[in-house]
UniProtKB/TrEMBL annotation:
Keywords carried by this UniProt record: Signal
Domain DUF7042 positions: 172-277
Signal peptide: 1-20
Protein name, entry field: DUF7042 domain-containing protein
Species: Mytilus coruscus
């Protein structure tokens, strides 16, 4: 996908002072990494960090006034915050402009990070960017561009290529159990004659599926094993970034949104990163609205006494939206 920018006009004069060393750049950020935000790009989410230049040299794509910009330099940093500037400018309205991207990062393991995009103007695809004229100077502070609070669910994960099975963390509560499941396409008509199992208990960092009796695709990976690499929670809702342990090129990660209510867990999945509004769409479906596209429903009956039931609604929607 390409991200389209809305022009933001800032009043005031800034002094051009940049953190040229970008001193808070993580020491392990070098070479190829997977970025779940960009899983739909031709690179399938693979980006390249340059430790020496403090740059993203490939994998990120930003379209500014119709001009694709694909290289970004870290120009400001503070604890947990990095501000990137596009290499090159784009012309629009008779002037030239560049864009800034602020990310807030949290280390989850040596080779994995969870991050939010902050500040700037929100775009229709969930991106957040600040656009400045090429004659405008940078502020000396990340707080100028890293404003506001991101939505809990709107995060991405960064995982070093080749480390997909080494970055797992303990699963959140909704997945700590062993369940049987049967598959339905519409919530009422069963498509399998038997049940299969989901194990999130033997290895508490791994969801493992046995599909021998109900061989329908679940969570969209080949070997049916999924590591938890990051999650966020808000009340009874969990947003879980799952990394496929086979790390296939087209399906490296899945976001699972799980809502706990009266010992029932309702969850939706979406390839790539967790996205804004994932919960509201799922609640509409759960409350009887019929317009959410491509729904598959899985029912999990408990085989150990950790919870009473697990109802899994899997959407697999590349572009989640409702019909009129």
């Amino acid at each position: 996908m390409e991200f389209f920018i809305k022009l933001v006009v800032y009043l005031g004069i800034f002094v051009r002072i940049s953190d040229t060393a970008c001193s808070h750049w993580p020491s392990v950020w070098d070479g190829q990494w997977y970025d779940s935000y960009f899983h739909e790009e031709s690179s399938n989410g693979m980006i390249t960090f340059s430790q020496s230049d403090k740059k993203v040299t490939t994998g990120w794509t930003l379209s500014l006034f119709g001009t694709p910009l694909t290289e970004f330099t870290c120009v400001l940093s503070s604890s947990g915050l990095l501000v990137f500037q596009t290499v090159g400018t784009s012309s629009g309205f008779g002037s030239s402009y560049y864009a800034l991207i602020c990310i807030s990062i949290t280390e989850k393991s040596t080779y994995s990070y969870m991050y939010y995009r902050k500040g700037g103007t929100s775009t229709s695809d969930g991106g957040r960017y600040t656009v400045l004229g090429d004659t405008e100077s940078l502020s000396s502070s990340t707080s100028t561009y890293c404003t506001g609070t991101a939505n809990t669910e709107d995060f991405g994960v960064l995982v070093k290529d080749g480390s997909y099975g080494d970055v797992a963390i303990t699963l959140p509560n909704p997945f700590l159990g062993i369940y049987n499941y049967t598959f339905t396409s519409d919530g009422s008509t069963f498509q399998c004659s038997g049940t299969s199992s989901m194990d999130g208990c033997t290895d508490k960092t791994l969801v493992k599926l046995n599909t021998s009796l109900c061989n329908n695709e679940l969570l969209d990976a080949d070997n049916r094993q999924f590591h938890c690499v990051a999650y966020a929670e808000s009340g009874s809702t969990y947003y879980i970034a799952m990394m496929h342990s086979d790390a296939s090129a087209t399906h490296r990660s899945t976001c699972v949104t799980a809502i706990i209510s009266d010992k029932i867990v309702t969850a939706s999945t979406d390839p790539g990163s967790c996205k804004k509004y994932a919960v509201s769409m799922q609640i509409q479906k759960f409350n009887g609205f019929k317009n959410l596209l491509f729904i598959k429903i899985y029912k999990f009956d408990l085989s150990v006494s950790i919870a009473d039931a697990f109802v899994f609604i899997s959407s697999f929607i590349q572009n989640s939206y409702l019909l009129e």
